[in-house]
Amino acid sequence: MPPPGSRWLAAIILLFFWCSLPASAAPLRAVVSFSILEDIVRQIGGAEVAVTSLIGPDSDAHLFEPSPDQARLLARAQLLVVNGLGFESWLARLTRSAQFDGTVVTASDGVVPITAAGAGEDAGVPDPHAWQDPRNVIVYAGNIARALAGIDPMHAEAYRQRLQGYQAELQALDERVRGELAAVPAEKRRVITSHDAFAYYGKAYGITFLAAEGI
Q: Can you tell me the distance from the alpha carbon of 93 to that of 95, in angstroms, rounded to the nearest whole number?
């Protein structure tokens, strides 16, 4: 049996070793405006980012009004990701109410917007549904990855690698859709929809969408 003094010494050494281990860093806290952005952040952020969407997948983004609880949620976040292009009309009110002082990234920065044609109330208004084109989602993902790396440089390489993989998947998806649509005659690429939300998809793949409602 080792003498008592050696047992105390071993315990002290173990305690010192345990205390010197780096603490597990808490995930970066991100809030996004709606569920598609949530998925993009999860794809790139992985376990290093805890992300919450303000608008759920079954909610109508056009009717959304932020609640006091969501303002408190945003107040604790480090990053806010929004779509832009007029999609979040409530953004200024929410950030002011939350006194948010973190980073705001507009995912659509760099996307060429499509504006509504005609003479109706939406004429000339940018269409915010840019994520309908996978090539635009590649832009979204790049903006989000750069924002994550700027806030959390320790995991910048992990974000970069996930970004590359995700963008490769999106590129492959775009090529697959183009390949499958090539067999569909142009005159048959017509779709009736209730909401004019597919202009980017239509432009990307040569499909005409006829909508009952505007943007």
A: 6
CB 64 within 8 A of CB 55: yes
- Of 76, 82, 51, 41, the closest CA to residue 64 belongs to 82
Would you state the structure tokens that stand for residue 56, as one six-digit string?
């759920």
Q: Which residues contact 64 (CB under 8 A, 6 or more apart)?
A: 54, 55, 90
What would the pLDDT profile of 44-76 be if each residue is shown by its tens digit?
Answer: 999 999 999 999 888 888 889 999 999 999 999
Concatenated DSSP letters of 175-208: HHHHHHHTTS-GGG-EEEEEES--HHHHHHHT-E
Rounded Cα distance between 77 and 102, Å, is: 7
What residue ranges define each of the domains in the chain, with the CATH number in brackets? Answer: 28-184 (3.40.50.1980)
